[in-house]
Design goal:
Layout: H1 14-20, E1 30-37, E2 44-45, E3 53-55, H2 57-69, E4 74-80, H3 97-109, E5 114-119, H4 141-158, E6 162-165, H5 172-182, E7 189-196, H6 203-208, H7 228-240, E8 244-248, H8 254-263, E9 268-271, H9 274-285, H10 291-305, E10 309-311, H11 315-321
Parallel strand pairs: 1-3, 1-4, 1-10, 4-5, 5-6, 6-7, 7-8, 8-9, 9-10
Antiparallel strand pairs: 2-3
Helix pairs in contact: 2-3, 4-5, 7-8
The structure holds ligand PBG.
Ligand PBG is lined by residues 118, 120, 122, 130, 166, 202, 205, 217, 273-274.
Length: 323
């Protein structure tokens, strides 16, 4: 008996395959994360992330202009300060590295691309945690919220269209929304890192931001074993006013991404993190994987799982391939 149903009919030619392709990846869905280092006089390569650099103010402006010209959806800024303290005061200081960079980038690209800022203290604290520590050395949730609120307002005043609270403090979206409204910024949005896992895949990022962290983030980021908990985190962020919710990392959490997309009526983002980038680049460097096919397959799978937006260090390159 020969089969009557022949799925292969729809794979016979390139035109046929294009006709029935279910998932798109286009430049406007991609967001480029970038690092800017205070006082840098030339762009500094990040050894564990080949092709990614810590920018100077000037090279960041150029990168932002290129991202806008390439039609990317957005650019997410991370600051690497020259000095740090216990309270991460450089994150609130209008003259701090990140706020200065936000002003530079906004002056360069205006509203041509969505400018996002990492709203978190880990880059700015001398202990490397995402929040303030109490007397016993634990991350103090509620004391941290006050600082996040000030930081978000400073970032919007510097030029961010969206703030991205990534510290996984309970209540962070609500206090930031209230602070932005009170400061006269009702149109500034919140990209909430809703389901952010305590992941080994952030390893190379710690190099990228010269992280001071000793220890781990297990008391605030999610356990990789938990999927249901991501729905609870997402529901809370939505109730507190998140404009976009995000799952992070992406590739090891595609099931979480799918279920978040199913319960959410706001856009869903996924962050393809540093370790996801580095492991592919390492295999490519050995000739073990085809770079372009692998990268596009990862991005397609993240979109297929339910992400409307993808933060990826390959955003510029992928945009070039996706004409
Ligand atoms: C926290 C933050 C981290 C990343 C983005 N925001 C690090 C962490 O939570 O330890 C990781 C991004 C990546 O690995 O690419 N500010």
């Amino acid at each position: 008996m020969y089969p009557t149903s022949r799925p292969r009919r729809l794979r016979t030619t390139a035109a046929m395959r294009r006709l029935v392709s279910e998932t798109t990846v286009v430049a406007r869905q991609l967001v480029l994360p970038v690092f800017v280092k205070q006082g840098a006089t030339e762009a500094i390569p990040i050894p564990s992330m080949p092709g990614v650099v810590q920018h100077t103010r000037d090279s960041l402006r150029k990168a932002a202009a290129e991202a806008a010209a390439a039609g990317l959806g957005g650019i997410m800024l991370f600051g690497v300060p020259a000095t740090r303290d216990a309270t991460g005061s450089g994150g609130i200081d209008p003259e701090g590295v990140l706020n200065t960079a936000l002003r530079d980038v906004r002056a360069e690209v205006g509203d041509d691309i969505v400018i996002m800022a990492d709203t978190c203290l880990d880059e700015f604290t001398d202990h490397g945690h995402c929040g303030l520590l109490d007397a016993t050395g634990r991350v103090d949730n509620d004391a941290t919220l006050t600082v996040y609120a000030q930081m978000a307002v400073a970032q919007v005043q510097a030029g961010a269209h969206l703030v991205g609270p990534s510290g996984m403090m309970d209540g962070q979206v609500g206090v930031i929304r209230a602070a932005l409204d009170a400061a006269g910024h009702p149109d500034a949005g919140i990209l909430a890192y809703s389901a952010k896992y305590a992941s080994a895949f952030y390893g190379p990022f710690r190099d990228a931001v010269d992280s001071q962290l000793r220890g781990d983030r297990l008391t605030y980021q999610q356990d990789p074993a938990n999927a249901r908990e991501a729905l609870r985190e997402t529901a809370l962020d939505l109730a507190e006013g998140a404009d976009i919710v995000m799952v992070k990392p992406a590739m090891s959490y595609l099931d979480v991404l799918r279920s978040v997309a199913e319960i959410t009526d706001v856009p869903v983002a996924a962050y393809q993190v540093s370790g996801e980038y580095s492991m592919v680049e390492a295999a490519v460097a050995r000739g073990w994987l085809d770079r372009r096919r692998t990268v596009l397959e990862t991005l397609t799978s993240i979109r297929r799982a339910g992400a409307d937006l993808v933060l990826t260090y390959w955003a510029m390159e992928a945009a070039g391939w996706l004409h």
